[in-house]
Amino acid sequence: MIKADVHVHSKFSPDSKTEVIFHIEKAIEQRAHSICITDHYDIIYLYKKNDAKEKYKREIDILIGVEVGLLSQFKKQINEFLNRYEFDFIIGSSHFVGNIEPYQSIFWENRSEKEALRNYFESILENVKIFKNYDVYGHLDYYVPF
């Protein structure tokens, strides 16, 4: 049984079309004790209008979080965003190495797999050294093709 789900995206993220209420009711159905909505950067829309938290407060603890793509060149902007809101849970992730997603074929061109993976994990190490305001680091396997 899942006690908590802390990596849930809703229609407020580009990679989901699911309503927040669906996730909440599914978590209740599965008897989870908490759920954390961790939409991508545009979580602000949910954060400002979170009537679900009040509606379901007797059935489940609803937390508000965010998954933020960490990039050293945007340290100031990312830190300003994270410090502006009181998130309950923050996932720091590496969706890019430089300005290229590891899912793009260009990321793998003109270098060995070992070199590409080294670049990926070095970028994560750089982010871990620079950013301190997240709860967990997500997508350590983001480079794995589907």
List the helices and strands and how they pair.
Layout lengths: L3 E5 L11 H10 L4 E6 L4 H5 L2 H5 L5 E9 L5 H10 L4 E5 L11 H4 L4 H18 L5 E3 L8
Parallel strand pairs: 1-2, 2-3, 3-4, 4-5
Please give a handful of descriptors for the protein shown.
146 residues; alpha/beta; TIM Barrel; five-stranded parallel β-sheet
Q: Can you describe what's shown?
A:
The protein is α/β, with parallel strands linked by helices and 146 residues long. It is built from six helices and five strands. It has a five-stranded parallel β-sheet, with helices on one face.
- How do the helices and strands follow one another from N- to C-terminus? EHEHHEHEHHE
Supply the CATH architecture.
Answer: Alpha-Beta Barrel
Assign the CATH topology.
Answer: TIM Barrel
| The CATH top-level class label | Alpha Beta
Supply the helix-strand structural class. alpha/beta
Main sheet record: 5 strands, parallel
Q: Enumerate the spans where pLDDT stays under 50 for 5 or more consecutive residues.
A: 42-46
Spatial order of the strands in the main sheet?
A: 1-2-3-4-5
Rg, Å, rounded: 17 Å
Q: Give the overall pLDDT as a whole number.
A: 86
Proportion of helical residues: 25-40%
**How many separate helices?**
6
Indicate the proportion of strand residues: 15-25%
CATH superfamily descriptor: Metal-dependent hydrolases
Number of strands: 5
Query: What is the molecular shape?
Result: elongated
- In whole angstroms, the N-to-C terminal distance is 27 Å
- The total number of structural domains is 1
